[in-house]
Amino acid sequence: MSRPLFALVxxxxxxxxxxxxxxxxxxxxxxxVGQEGKDVVWVPTPQVVVNKMLDMAKVTKDDFxxxxxxxxxxxxxxxxxxxxxxxxxxxNPDMVALSEHNAxxxxxAAKASFKKADLFETDFSQASVITMFLLPDIxxxxxxxxxxxxxxxxxxxxxxxxxxxxxxxxxNLSSTxxxxxxxxxxxxxxxxxxxxxxxxxxxxxxxxxxxxLSGTLQTEGKSLPVTGKVRGTQVTFTAGxxxxxxxxNGKSLVPAP
Length: 257
Ligand SMILES: C[S@@+](CC[C@H](N)C(=O)[O-])C[C@H]1O[C@@H](n2cnc3c(N)ncnc32)[C@H](O)[C@@H]1O
Known about the structure:
Blueprint: H1 3-22, H2 47-56, E1 64-68, H3 74-81, E2 85-90, H4 93-105, E3 112-116, E4 129-132, H5 136-147, E5 154-158, E6 169-172, H6 174-177, E7 183-188, E8 195-199, E9 202-209, E10 212-219, E11 222-231, E12 234-239, E13 242-249, E14 252-255
Parallel strand pairs: 1-2, 1-4, 2-3, 4-5
Antiparallel strand pairs: 5-7, 6-7, 8-9, 9-10, 10-11, 11-12, 12-13, 13-14
Helix pairs in contact: 2-3
The structure holds S-adenosylmethionine (SAM).
């Protein structure tokens, strides 16, 4: 072979080898559904449910999504495909490696990251959306920490509930999901609004059970019973047959249009 031809062949084979190295090799690790995890076994959320969970949380490129117990990374990868920054927390290092591989394959490695960590020891206070498919008792253990998150943070869970904290929205996808575990639930972290507030309508005293409000409105010498809801920082309440809207601005309740 002539010297220039040899150089050409060498250059081509080097770039081919480089291209192959760039494409991540298939990981040797193949997880099996039901395999042990630290606190929960691995069962993947069906993709239609992942999509619905992210729809309900209205995930956009401005969000930071964290999946607690991220398995093979599908929720994180789907969120990253929607332009969000997303991070999976997963205790099993093989699943972390598999997720990283899957993110590279999906072309979203720059937006999707994975951390080998215990979800109970993880700071998720920076997340604007939290996704999870854990167990009811784990959700309950996480609930106090979740309720301290910034008001308006969206929490979406596959199937499992939050005890007496009722979901703000539920979608049952069992007709299209083709598997078990096909219910998407959304909660919006409520602002803390309990207490007495001065409003143009009068003096409003609120009791709060998660997002559900009750209380009284003192107005024109009368005490009217109040029922209401808080969704993030937005408060809606009814008193004397009228609906009112207000917004928590720091610690103050202010009228909203
Ligand atoms: C039911 S799977 C859900 C996987 C993924 N979120 C999904 O929806 O497809 C639960 C995952 O949590 C992981 N896990 C269990 N206990 C954990 C812990 N204490 N910290 C982090 N991950 C944990 C398991 O290894 C498993 O991958």
